[in-house]
Design brief:
By secondary structure, the protein is of the alpha/beta class. It has three domains: 2-180, Alpha-D-Glucose-1,6-Bisphosphate, subunit A, domain 3 (Alpha-D-Glucose-1,6-Bisphosphate, Chain A, domain 3, 3-Layer(aba) Sandwich); 185-407, Alpha-D-Glucose-1,6-Bisphosphate, Chain A, domain 3; 409-542, TATA-Binding Protein (2-Layer Sandwich). It is 32% helix and 26% strand. The chain contains 18 helices and 28 strands. The protein has a seven-stranded mixed beta sheet, with helices on both faces. Strands 22-25-26-27-19-28 form a six-stranded antiparallel beta sheet. A five-stranded mixed beta sheet has the order 11-10-12-13-14, sandwiched between helices. A hairpin with a 7-residue loop joins strand 26 and strand 27. The radius of gyration is 23 Å and the shape is globular. The structure holds alpha-D-glucose-1-phosphate-6-vanadate and cobalt (II) ion. The site of cobalt (II) ion has 8 residues, from loops. Belongs to the phosphohexose mutase family. One of its GO terms (molecular function) is magnesium ion binding. Its cofactor is Mg(2+). Residues 14-153, 185-286, 295-407 form the Alpha-D-phosphohexomutase alpha/beta/alpha domain.
Length: 543
């Protein structure tokens, strides 16, 4: 087998966003596109000599081909070993668990996560560091710089490796080790949760529906929930990963997981419903007739984590992304632990988790996780909820009512305007940004602006900084709106508007969130002019 050195030219825009490099699948399939990025990663974190890497993806279209290419490139770059999930599959949290458990020198995860897949969908790739988390911006910046100057990449001239069977194969002097994608992850879950209590819950009349959305969590959920915890077969639906996710949009929110929502709000609804995204790091939690907003889920899990054996000693602190509601902060205050607000994207939690400052982290985008790995973890959140329900012997609705009675309720919703004109969206943000200084004191739609800024962050552990992370408009103690542009989309721009209002009085906690937030929604419209500027009358998604 010979190593080939292939001449190449840089592609524009190989810049990792909120979570890795994402682009249309057809863009990734152009000759040299994937190869350039992978070589740039290897040049940045290498030389690979003697290194072991973890490799896997969410199974979307082009996953298998990309895995073969990366294996041959790792071998040509001198890596000692690559640990790869069987059939090229690893959920994002499982990849993080494998990196940590096997102490590999980081890994590559192939996924565009919640973005649709298939030939006409999206593909993506990211590098995770040896701690198991997404590379911080210092590394992604260096990788991007490298992509702009690359002239050649190295690849082994070899046949494809059989990844359908566990075991070890030699690839030009590098070991390719195929592992069960579920085993290490399942072992970790067993160490954190009271599986006996959850088993007893399933043995009672408790019914659950888990929608894997034809994405990577299918095998994980089937193995853990049905085979190990005794949930009846059929609990997991859409459990076979498909290259195009069955044509769906694998984003677990009330709009894209509409079928699960309909079932959970039907006369014969199960007790508990959940869904996960393309790469298994997001979760949606729904009780019978009760949708749990991700910001609330984070707060509930932080307040109740001690009920699970893995967190019985309590938690060190809680971190949330800035646009996530402040519900978790109130829990942290009551527990007497630190609370942090970071920019959007899991990579910003890494330093806090590594330093032991926080145990539980979460984002309003249906991402929750803990120090057990360095990624958000969909099935972990589902299992912690099950553990909490088993311990409290309460319904989801009752858990929420109790939580709000104790801490108050943060009405919350995110409105997404997807694939809008990029220039128009940027102009909207720029104009709002330039008006920020004049906003405090103004009264809009009956709400008075008390603070307005563009979120900037200094990491409390390593001092690194990030600016322009979202425009915040605060209306007194209770209400807040945040606007930012997505960093994961691949077409045009996506505007995210995050809306919240705090209601301490249980008598006022039973409203529909869209109604409860109507004043904030109207104020944002007046200040930002979304309808006119983006030519949209309605958001595409309301969470
Ligand atoms: C979105 C979410 C963010 C999340 C990121 C990756 O980013 O808002 O909270 O961390 O997706 O999630 P953005 O820049 O589009 O708002 V995943 O499940 O796509 O890896
Ligand atoms: Co994801």
């Amino acid at each position: 087998m010979t190593v080939k050195t292939i001449a190449t030219k840089p592609f524009d825009g190989q810049k990792p966003g909120t979570s890795g490099l994402r682009a249309k699948t057809t863009v990734f399939m152009q000759p040299n596109y994937l190869e350039n990025f992978v070589q740039s990663v290897f040049d940045t974190v290498g030389p690979l000599t003697g290194m072991t890497l973890t490799l896997g993806g969410d199974g979307r279209f082009f996953n298998s081909q990309a895995i073969q290419t990366i294996l041959k490139m790792a071998a040509a770059n001198g890596a000692a070993r690559v640990v790869v999930g069987r059939d090229g599959l690893l959920s994002t949290p499982a990849a993080s668990a494998v990196i940590r458990h096997r102490k590999t020198d980081g890994g590559l995860i192939l996924s565009a996560s919640h973005n649709p897949g298939g030939e006409t969908g999206d593909f993506g790739i990211k590098y995770n560091i040896p701690a198991g988390g997404p590379a911080p911006e210092s590394i992604t910046g260096a990788i991007h710089a490298r992509t702009a100057e690359i002239t050649e990449y190295r690849i082994l001239d070899a046949a494809d490796i059989d990844l359908t069977r566990d075991g070890e194969t030699d690839l030009g002097g590098m070991a390719v080790e195929v592992i069960d994608p579920v085993a290490i992850y399942a072992e970790l879950m067993r160490s954190l949760f009271d599986f006996d209590a959850i088993r007893a819950l399933f043995a009672s009349r408790f019914r659950m529906r888990f929608d894997a959305m034809h994405a990577v969590t299918g095998p994980y959920a089937t193995s853990i929930l049905e085979n190990e915890l005794g949930a009846p077969s059929g609990t997991v639906i859409n459990g076979t990963p498909l290259p195009d996710f069955g044509g769906g949009h694998p984003d677990p929110n009330p709009v894209y997981a509409a079928a699960l929502m309909a079932e959970m709000f039907s006369a014969d609804a199960p007790d508990f419903g959940a869904a996960s995204d393309g790469d298994g790091d997001r979760n949606m939690i729904v009780g019978r007739n009760t949708y749990v907003t991700p910001s609330d889920s984070l707060a509930v899990l932080a307040a109740n984590a001690h009920l699970a054996p893995g967190y019985a000693d309590g938690i060190a602190g809680v971190a949330r992304s800035m646009p996530t509601s402040r519900a978790a902060d109130r829990v942290a205050e009551k527990l007497g632990v630190e609370a942090f607000a970071t920019p959007t994207g899991w990579k910003f939690f890494g330093t806090l988790l590594d330093a032991g400052r926080v145990t539980i982290c979460g984002e309003e985008s249906a991402g929750t996780g803990s120090s057990h790995v360095r990624e958000k973890d969909g099935l972990w959140a589902v299992l912690l909820w099950l553990n909490v329900l088993a311990a409290k012997k309460m319904s989801v609705a009752d858990v929420m009512a109790e939580h709000w009675a104790t801490y108050g309720r943060d009405y919350y919703s995110r409105h997404d305007y997807e694939e809008v004109d990029k220039a128009a969206a940027e102009a909207l943000m720029d104009d709002l940004r330039s008006a920020l200084a004049d906003l405090p004191g103004q009264t809009v739609e009956g709400l008075t602006v008390t603070e307005a800024d563009d979120f900037a962050y200094t990491d409390p552990v390593d001092g690194s900084t990030a600016s322009k992370q979202g425009i915040r408009i605060v209306f007194g103690d209770a209400a807040r709106a945040v606007l930012r542009l997505s960093g994961t989309g691949t077409v045009g721009a996506t505007l995210r508007v995050y809306l919240e209002r705090f209601e301490p009085d249980p008598a006022g906690q039973g409203e529909d969130p869209q109604t409860a937030l109507s004043q904030v929604i109207a104020a944002v419209e007046t200040l930002a002019g979304i309808r006119d500027r983006l030519g949209r009358t309605e958001p595409d998604v309301r969470t």
